[in-house]
Each structure stands twice: as structure tokens, then as C-alpha cells.
Design brief:
2 domains, two-stranded antiparallel sheet, two-stranded parallel sheet, extended, 93 residues, 16% helix, alpha+beta
Length: 93
């Protein structure tokens, strides 16, 4: 990050699981202006549970699959399975 000229002390690089839990459970992250968003909690199994409110779920129309020799004939291309060129995948990755 420093090589890129980014020196923001608020940025945490490669935090531990414990650091992620601590950050997620800070008081300022326990509420939201969106009334459909619930508080962040730890479940009975120890998993971190975060609610994204009414806007949760995947976005099927944003799904991209690399179009190549392996997928060309096996994927049902259309409105949901949208083809992506290998070079675009590499760039986005």
C-alpha cells in the first residue's frame, strides 16, 4: 500500500478473524439508518451474522461466465448466464 502512496491509518491489511469480529461488533456498526437492517451478532455456533436488510440476495442478472471452449456448448447462455471474454475476466480478477 505504501508503494502506491496509500498511507491511511484506517486501512487494515489482512486482518485476523478476531480483528474482523471486533470491527464488525463496534457500536457504530450495530445500527443502520435503514430500518430493515438488523444488528450484527455472533450466533450460537460462533459465526458472525450480519444483516443486509431488504436488499439481500444474489443478483442473477449480474452473473458472468467465461465464454471459452469448455463452456461454449455446455452453458445455457441468455439473460441470466451472460458470457464474458477470458481477457475481461483476467482484467477484472
Amino acid at each position: 500500500m505504501k508503494a502506491l502512496g496509500i498511507n491511511n491509518p484506517e486501512i487494515v491489511f489482512n486482518p485476523s478473524v478476531a480483528e474482523l469480529y471486533e470491527y464488525a461488533l463496534r457500536p457504530e456498526h450495530m445500527s443502520s439508518p435503514d430500518p430493515t437492517v438488523g444488528p450484527t451478532t455472533i450466533t450460537a455456533t460462533g459465526a458472525l451474522s450480519c444483516s443486509s436488510g431488504s436488499k439481500m440476495g444474489r443478483v442473477p442478472k449480474e452473473k458472468r461466465i467465461v465464454l471459452d471452449d469448455m463452456t461454449r456448448e455446455d452453458v445455457h447462455w441468455g439473460e441470466i448466464n451472460i458470457p464474458m471474454q477470458p481477457e475481461n475476466f483476467a482484467r477484472n480478477r
